[in-house]
Amino acid sequence: MSDAQRRSYDTLRSAWCIPFPPDPPGMVPEPADIFGNGNPLTVEIGFGMGIATAIIAEGNPGKNYLGFEVYRPGIGSLLREIEKRNLRNIRIVEYDAVAGMELLLPDRSVDAFHIFFPDPWPKKRHHKRRLVTRPFTGTLARKLKSGAYLYMVTDWEDYAFWALRELSATGGLRNPYDGFAPPRDWRPETKFERKGLAQSYRVRELYFEAHHG
Questions:
Q1: Which end of the chain has fewer surrounding CB within 10 Å, N or C?
Q2: Are the C-beta atoms of 150 and 210 separated by less than 8 Å?
Q3: pLDDT per residue as tens digits for the range 48-72
Q4: Which residue is catalytic, options 3, 111, 119, 178?
Q5: Is residue 119 annotated as part of the catalytic site, yes or no?
Q6: Can you name the CATH fold of 106-213?
């Protein structure tokens, strides 16, 4: 961690990070209690350094943003952005999303999931570690409200086609496009993304909507 990231982590964590896992077990706040309002909830899994998260949240003050991340320099970076931009609609969970999702989020409570450039785990023996894979995609589908969306972006070709297959085979999700989705003009380009584009990596986007029977 840089000095600035550590300073932000140490001084701001108590204000914007949700204590997790709960102690005692079972004492889990509802999203409306976390934010103090019932505004639409977007959950980002793995926000990296958090710059895109902060930009999106700043442009949508009427929405709540909950970010799962375990990378402490990234948490420190986002906390710094929260302070610098005077944001009030972001909370952070310093915990693994796969393990924490069931504990923290009730079914049909989420308006959107954002998953931007997740770890591709490129070696075949590690594919089972990929985030966007069944049965976890089924958990994500259950957490979404009807009509809500899951939006994933990756520059790893194999992972893009893998995720397209996994999401297409997940009950409760529907792809409104014929394959990959067009880019969303509201998503900021990240530093990580620019590096990939400079190496001629192709960015692919997936957008699925929740439809509960």
A1: C
A2: yes
A3: 999 999 999 999 999 999 999 999 9
A4: 119
A5: yes
A6: Rossmann fold (3.40.50)
